[in-house]
Amino acid sequence: MLVVGAGIMGAGIAQVAAQAGHRVWLHDTREGAAASAKTALAKTLQGLVDKGKLAADAAEGALARITPISTLAEAAAARVVVEAIVENLEVKRGLFRDLEALLSDDAILATNTSSISVTAIANGLRLPGRLVGMHFFNPVPLMKLVEVVSGLHTEPPVAEAIYALSQAWGKVPVHAKSSPGFIVNRIARPYYAETLALLQEQAATPAVLDACLRGAAFRMGPCELMDLIGHDTNFAVTNSVYGAYFQDKRFGPSGVQRDLVDAGWLGRKNGRGFYPYPQSDADKALPAAPQAAPGALTVHGQCAWAARIADALSAAGLSVTRDTAAAAVAITLAEGGELRPTDGRPAAQLAFEGGARDVAVFDWSVTETVAPGTPIAFALASGASDAFAARAAGVLAAAGWQPLRVADAAGLVVARTIAMLVNEAADAVLQGVCSPEGADAAMKLGVNYPAGPFEWLARVGAPAVMGLLDRLDTHYRGERYRVSPWLRQRVWSAA
């Protein structure tokens, strides 16, 4: 096989193919780049040997199967080509036209593009049906996911052949239709966008928002992740997806991130983003919410979550009464006041509609278990008393969480983020971009999410997700939070 492009991605693809037993020709237009890449791979493979992760003879064999070449003509016998060159449509088209004139008609042409339409790349080829996307994730040897992307021209047997080849290389392939962002880069947009929207509203600090989402088992919070990626890169991808979807408000860029880019605060790579680098303990500090021990309380709700909260509060020594006749989860205090998990309405709206003053809302818990001290966001109606605020924080702390008070923003932090991730995945399935199983695998393996969007949907329930999104849509009155028709159909068909 032939790998074109000897940068980080191309070298990684060559390594994986060679370790799987394939003979690989490695080409790059930069003089000496392919040979340098092989030299670097020799050090990488030796490092694996030194760590006991690879046998010495396996490393030697893999390296021997990689041949740097200076001209494409030297690989005329290749049956599969994987392109990993610059993200430029015309450059990629030119390469594949050259390859088409060189290779046999049954050779498969694969592009590792992450952002360009596979359909557009194939346009103009003599045999466009043999071009398919084979999108790897960096670092290629470690990341399991491969998006097998079919354009309008791609013949199904070609996509299936690349799917099987990915499996033979030890990867987990998922089929995707060529559309902006494919699966991962599309579905992941709300993870950044909802936090940026909350920052725009001054709902919380980056440290608090990151802590809340790490509390939902994400490895990194969105602010620290954007700092790692680089705000210039993340902002450019957002603008690209936004333009590709014809300025759909759901994908709109953020003024908060634009300001960071304009300021030159690009993240870790230049020492300042949402956080300064290196970070101090003060940069990571979280504000402590004043807490007071509540008296007797009643936990309402029929679901397992209500039972789990009641059990935790009882174990903490509080006097707890269970009300299993109520459908909705709520915690009422003997001293007065009520806590509810967010349904998308701010605490102030609930207080107004219920004629109450002491109302608090708290975030969703979407993990199957909760570690002691897990951060959770809560908010209070504007008229709530300080005494109730302290007791509300005390209830959440007694249940095992670390309560972090945020502004009274609709949908809080985790709930609106998870709901939007589910919603975007639902639209991707509706539009034939991927299957539910493909979406789950892609998000867990491509960006290390703790669960797939449809796994979250199964835990939380479609009515809760749809209800929260509908209330966000009412609150913000825009297109951003419109519910996917796939999700509505799910609710209706289960009713």
From TrEMBL:
Residues 3-177 form the 3-hydroxyacyl-CoA dehydrogenase NAD binding domain. It comes from the Bacteria. Pfam families: 3HCDH (PF00725), 3HCDH_N (PF02737), 3HCDH_RFF (PF18321). The keyword Oxidoreductase applies. Its EC number is 1.1.1.35. InterPro entries: 3-OHacyl-CoA_DH_NAD-bd (IPR006176), 3HC_DH_C (IPR006108), 3HCDH_RFF (IPR041040), 6-PGluconate_DH-like_C_sf (IPR008927), 6PGD_dom2 (IPR013328), NAD(P)-bd_dom_sf (IPR036291). GO terms for molecular function: (3S)-3-hydroxyacyl-CoA dehydrogenase (NAD+) activity; 3-hydroxybutyryl-CoA dehydrogenase activity; NAD+ binding. Keywords: Oxidoreductase. Residues 339-409 form the 3-hydroxybutyryl-CoA dehydrogenase reduced Rossmann-fold domain. PANTHER family: 3-HYDROXYACYL-COA DEHYDROGENASE FAMILY PROTEIN, 3-HYDROXYBUTYRYL-COA DEHYDROGENASE. This is 3-hydroxyacyl-CoA dehydrogenase.
